[in-house]
Design goal:
Distance between the termini: 39 Å
Number of strands: 8
Largest sheet: 4 strands, mixed
Radius of gyration: 27 Å
Strand content: 5-15%
Length: 464
């Protein structure tokens, strides 16, 4: 570059002026409110992070939810809540949003009630979701809901536990236990009074023995109807019998023939390998993933190899499971069997099947600052590498903290599993040189001044 060029044609940076500052005082940009709402629904865990406490994040979540409700855009709010629960696999934030919709309806916004009713079955998918909804509602409003909530929740209970439900007995066994904290399923039934029409033995079982007044005036339990309900439903009958038997062979029979959930069967397993094998046979894929180390510790992992390998390597099973990719990498850190490691490696690759292809040149920025130390970096690296694998055009892979370094990314990159470990090694190399706070503004500016022609820029970073 000549002196004339440097003097009269200096390089200029094309940047968008910052609109705010992050918690570390660096320039940052505010998203439009709908994007903030989606970001909160899809990423906020209401747990402590490097930059903020759980209380801070909860306060921010309330602010975003309340601001979105104030816009009155009920169709967007309802669809966003459903998307976050079903496609984003989040629970607490969509449930909080559902409570905010119910509150808006109570405050006289009738349209909010319509979309609350539509969104409720999309967000509340299991009894645990319903019990968490009740807990949040009680915490924010001081009660379990008015007419609208009771009608909608009662209708949900009818669909899930009525005579026509095919999953009622399984859920009654899995979720029906009384709790020392919070609400139980029995509490929900007594608060929302589902009207099932014909008598439902499952609901009779969940409600427990009726209390009646004896001739002498004492209140006693009439267990007759409850016992009839127990014997009328095979799965419930198997569970109640499991509480009484002592022989391992009987336990195995009841667990397998009754298809008892592992949550209720494991307290009766003890150290019996036969019982643990029977329990493993009833585990869904996520439970299998979480209990691999337990099965190995009890010496039964190899005995269940066929079932475990099938669950972890079947594309349809993994696609339906909604398990986030980093879970497979976490499980691999706690199991030693080589065949299990191979199955987890395949499951990790399969878990990206629902990620759409990314068209055009793509820039991917991975935050490797101090705030990302530990699990945060591992999870972000997996998703960043997934994005790189899904990109159809040229990929620029960058690591950034207070500076930015470009890493090569070949089209024939090895598996995500190996790439994840390679990425962590790159982070350790970078962190030896600088372990400072994130300067996202520098990274974005750096991308512009380097002349990146990327159609997509994906930034994996922590909150801040």
């Amino acid at each position: 570059m000549t002196r004339a060029t440097r003097t009269f044609m200096p390089k200029t940076r094309t940047t968008i002026p910052a609109t705010s500052q992050n918690r570390e005082g660096w320039p940052s940009w505010d998203r439009p409110l709908p994007e903030q709402f989606l970001q909160t629904l899809l990423t906020n865990t209401v747990g402590r992070t490097f930059y903020a406490s759980a209380q801070d994040l909860l306060a921010e979540a309330h602010q975003v939810h309340d601001a979105m409700v104030a816009t009155g855009d009920w169709p967007f709010i309802g669809s966003a809540l459903a998307y976050a629960r079903q496609r984003g696999f989040m629970r607490l934030q969509p449930i909080l949003g559902l409570v905010k919709l119910a509150q808006a309806a109570k405050d006289g916004k009738l349209a909010a009630g319509v979309f609350f009713e539509q969104a409720f079955p999309e967000v509340v998918q299991t009894p645990n979701d319903l019990l968490d909804f009740m807990a949040v509602l009680k915490g924010l409003r001081g009660n379990e809901g008015g007419r609208l909530v009771k009608r909608v929740a009662g209708a949900w209970l009818v669909r899930k536990f009525g005579p026509e439900s095919k999953i009622a007995s399984y859920w009654a066994v899995k979720y029906g236990a009384q709790r020392t904290e919070g609400y139980s399923l029995r509490d929900a039934l007594r608060l929302y009074h589902p009207k099932t029409g014909p008598a439902s033995p499952v609901l009779a079982y969940l409600n427990g023995p009726r209390k009646v007044k004896a001739p002498d005036g004492q209140v006693i339990e009439d267990a007759k109807a409850w016992e009839e309900a127990v014997w009328a439903v095979p799965q419930i009958k198997a569970f109640e019998r499991l509480k009484l038997v002592t022989e391992d062979a009987e336990k195995v029979t009841l667990i397998t023939e009754g298809r008892l959930p592992h949550e209720v069967a494991t307290p009766f397993a003890g150290t019996s390998k036969d019982v643990w094998v029977a329990i493993a046979g009833q585990m869904p894929v996520f439970a299998t993933l979480r209990h691999l180390a337990t099965l190995e510790r009890h010496g039964v992992l190899d005995a269940t190899r066929n079932e475990v390998e099938h669950r972890l390597t079947d594309p349809e099973t993994i696609a339906r499971s909604r398990i986030l990719p980093f879970r497979f990498l976490e499980a691999a850190n706690h199991v030693r069997a080589s065949w299990a490691q191979d199955a987890l490696r395949q499951a990790l690759e399969l878990s990206f099947a629902n990620v759409p292809e990314i068209a055009g040149p793509t820039a991917i920025m991975l935050d490797v600052s101090t705030s990302m130390t530990g699990d945060y970096l591992q999870k972000a690296a997996i998703f960043a590498i997934c994005a790189a694998k899904k990109a159809q055009g040229r990929v620029r892979f960058m690591l950034f903290s207070d500076a930015c370094a470009t890493r090569s990314w070949g089209r024939r990159r090895r598996s995500t599993w190996s790439a994840g470990r390679t990425q962590r090694r790159a982070w350790r190399s970078c962190s030896r040189r600088r372990r400072r706070s994130t300067t996202c503004s520098w990274s974005a500016t750096n991308r512009r001044t380097e002349g990146a022609d990327s159609a997509t820029c994906s930034m994996s970073t922590g909150r801040g």
